[in-house]
């Protein structure tokens, strides 16, 4: 059931948002106003031309009264396969003490660590580096 297509995620996000907006009986303009984004920007998101930040997705989710987590999954910010592991991303996204830029930076670093630690086909991890920072006392 896993779909690893990033390009398709943005398109399905737009389709999903449009569907939710129609079900909520909101015009594009009304949703844009409630979410605090411009009408053209929201239109571009729905058409799959723009990938919104986690902050914008949270505002849209609030305006639509739906789960922000669903939007994060559809936008490819978190993976549904991660299950409990997705809680790291959700915790970062939900932290009010971080700016949007800081949240995105943390998510990027976290994703790069996960990718770095994932064994590649036919690749071996360098020896000795996995024990850095071990408790010495």
From TrEMBL:
<keyword id="KW-0238">DNA-binding</keyword>
<dbReference type="GO" id="GO:0005829">
    <property type="term" value="C:cytosol"/>
</dbReference>
<dbReference type="InterPro" id="IPR001387">
    <property type="entry name" value="Cro/C1-type_HTH"/>
</dbReference>
<feature type="compositionally biased region" description="Basic and acidic residues">
    <location>
        <begin position="126"/>
        <end position="137"/>
    </location>
</feature>
<feature type="region of interest" description="Disordered">
    <location>
        <begin position="117"/>
        <end position="137"/>
    </location>
</feature>
<dbReference type="InterPro" id="IPR050807">
    <property type="entry name" value="TransReg_Diox_bact_type"/>
</dbReference>
<dbReference type="InterPro" id="IPR010982">
    <property type="entry name" value="Lambda_DNA-bd_dom_sf"/>
</dbReference>
<feature type="domain" description="HTH cro/C1-type">
    <location>
        <begin position="17"/>
        <end position="71"/>
    </location>
</feature>
<dbReference type="Pfam" id="PF01381">
    <property type="entry name" value="HTH_3"/>
</dbReference>
<dbReference type="GO" id="GO:0003677">
    <property type="term" value="F:DNA binding"/>
</dbReference>
<protein>
    <submittedName>
        <fullName>XRE family transcriptional regulator</fullName>
    </submittedName>
</protein>
<dbReference type="GO" id="GO:0003700">
    <property type="term" value="F:DNA-binding transcription factor activity"/>
</dbReference>
